[in-house]
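Batch job 17 of 40 flagged for manual review because the log was empty.
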Amino acid sequence: MAVWSEESVELAGLKLHLLRGGRGRPVLVLHHDIGSPDRLPFYDALAEKFDVLVPHHPGYGKSDRPQWLRHPRDIAALYQWLLADKGVERAALLGLGFGGWIAAEMAALAPRDFHRLVLVGAMGLKPPEGEIFDQAIVSYIDYARAGFHDPAAFARIYGDVSTDQLVEWDLAREMSFRIAWKPYMYSQSLPHLLGGVRTPALVVWGDEDRVVPVSAGELYARSLRQARLEIVRAAGHCVEMEQPEALARLVIPFLDQN
């Protein structure tokens, strides 16, 4: 079992919470718009092979909320800064949902700098078919539940949802609306920039994703130079929580390539 450490990293006038574990090739994991539990079996599986960095996005979880933040591309720039301060080079990027959008922005900003790019149910592109689920029309807990195909998987991760968890989801929603409201959860410029990315990419989607239609994944796979799309069965939007073993079987060999 990997040993994990926590620290608060200061950059751009804010304190960023960082969880880090394992050793080997660096992998930056970027979480969903509902945040992330500190420990997940999928994170542990990654840390058995890699040096895994899991920051809380600014404005989410245990990180500070900067008033100036206005776009996911701002977070992408902050994470470039984080990697530079930590002396991390040629990291792999693994983005989950909203974190996939940030990862795609990072790859577009630095087309040759990353070892591998993994996008799991990534937001950031307007789906050619269907719409990204609008969290403004449901409660915080119902939006979190919508990320799972199997209600038992949601219960396994979150149990009897605490008041603290509800508050965290409330704050995450507020931050998401500030930086990704118009247009909602996609970029009008990102599709035009993905073609420059040289990093080999793996695009993964749950076959029961009710938050981001699979057509967005198909568009990512077409837009990136070196990409393939894989579908995980019996999984919703939060594939890493619902089908961690299946996702690890896809992701770990891909990240382990030279």
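Reviewer: the log was empty due to a logging misconfiguration, but the result itself is present. The two ends are 25 Å apart (CA to CA). Unflagging and moving on to job 18.
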